[in-house]
Amino acid sequence: MGNQCAVVWSDALLGYKLGDDHPLHPIRLDLTMRLARSLGVLDDVDLIPPQIASDEDLERVHSQEYLTAVRAAPMSAWDVGHGLGTPDNPIFDEMHDAAALIAGGSLAAARAIVEGRTARAINIAGGLHHAMRDNAAGFCVYNDCSVAIAWMLEQGVERVAYVDVDVHHGDGVQAAFYDDPRVLTVSMHQHPITLWPGTGHPTELGARGAEGTAVNVPVPPGTSDAGWLRAFHAVVPSVLAEFRPQVLVTQCGADAHREDPLADLGLSVDGQRETYRALREFADTYSGGKWLALGGGGYQLFRVVPRAWTHLLATVLDRDLDPATRIPTDWMAHALGVAGNTPLPTTMTDDVDPSFTEWAGVADSPVDTAIRDCRHAVFPLHGLDPADRRD
C-alpha cells in the first residue's frame, strides 16, 4: 500500500484568509503545523504540496456560473450574489485560487489513496463543508470535501462514507450527495434548533432511491465528552458496518470544544482525541484502512485548534501523543507573540477523562433522546433494529 499516510501541506494554504478579524483565520493552521513539527509528529514525513483544482474538478460539485462569480468577485464593483460579500463570506483578493488550492489539497489526498500510494491521507486545511453548488456559505467558498468525494466516485470507487464531527451540520456535503446511494453522509453536530445552519434533523434521511444514506445525530447544547462519545458509538459504527464503504472520509472540525466561541458544546481536547482514535479504528474495521481526514471549523485559534489537530495528525500517522505531553517552549514562545492576551495551555490535555458509558437503550437524558430519535429514523432503512444495543 506504500507509505502509511500522506500529509498535504504548503504554506500557500495560508492564503485562504477571509480577513484579519474573521473567525476562520489561517493562524490556526500555521500554529498546528508548528506544534506538530515541534513535537516530532511530522519527523521524516514528506509533505505533498497541493495544486489548484481545475475547473473540471470543481464543476463536479459547483456550477460554472458560480466559478465565474468567484473569479470576478474581487474585481467587481457590483453585488455578485452567490453568498459572496457577506460578513461570513467576505470577498478577498485571489479568492478563487486560494479556495481552489484547498480543494486541490483534498484532491491530492484522495488521489494518493485511490492510486494505492497510501492507505491514509490528511489535509488539515480542508473540511470546508458548507459551500453549496451555487453559493458560498459558512466561511466556505468551495466544498473540498464534496469535490474529493465526487472525484473518487468518478474513478470507480463504489461506496464512500463521510463522517462529520464538526459542531455544525455538514449540510453542503449532505446536499451534494442527498440523492446518491453511493455516498453515506453521517453528521454529529449541535442540535439545529440551537445553531446555524439549522439543518441536520434525524428526519433528513436522503432522497428517494437513497433513503438512509443521510444520517444525522444532533446533540443538545452543553453535551460533554461522555454524551458525545456515547451518541457517536451508538450510531456511527452500526451504519458504517452495514454500508461497507471502500473509503472513509472524515471532517474533523475542532469547534465542538467547550471553549469554542461560535458554539455551545462541551468537549475537551481529550474527547476530541478519542473521537479521532475511534475514526481510525472505524477506517481499519470498515473501509479496509482507507481514510481521508480533513480539517474544518475551530475558532479558539490558540488554545484549542493547534492541540486538537496535532492530535489528529498524530492519530492518522500512528504517532499517538500522550495527552500529558508538555508543549515545547519554542512553540510557546512563537504563539505568545501572536496570541495577544490569550493564556496558552502548557500540555496536550485538558485534564479530562473522556470515558463514557454505552447507550443503554433508554431515553432518560437529552443525549439519549437524540440517540433514540436518530436510530429509530435511520436504522430500519439499513435493516438494523433501532432497539438492539448489539448493532
UniProtKB/TrEMBL annotation:
Domain annotation Histone deacetylase: ranges: 22-315
CDD domains: HDAC_AcuC_like
InterPro entries: AcuC, HDACs, His_deacetylse_dom, His_deacetylse_dom_sf, Ureohydrolase_dom_sf
Molecular function terms, GO-annotated: histone deacetylase activity
Pfam family for this entry, one: Hist_deacetyl
Assigned keywords, A-Z: Acetoin catabolism
Protein's pathway: Ketone degradation; acetoin degradation
Gene Ontology biological process terms, A to Z: acetoin catabolic process; epigenetic regulation of gene expression
PANTHER family: HISTONE DEACETYLASE HDAC1, HISTONE DEACETYLASE HDAC1-RELATED
Family designation: Belongs to the histone deacetylase family.
This protein's name: Acetoin utilization protein AcuC
Species for this entry: Allosaccharopolyspora coralli
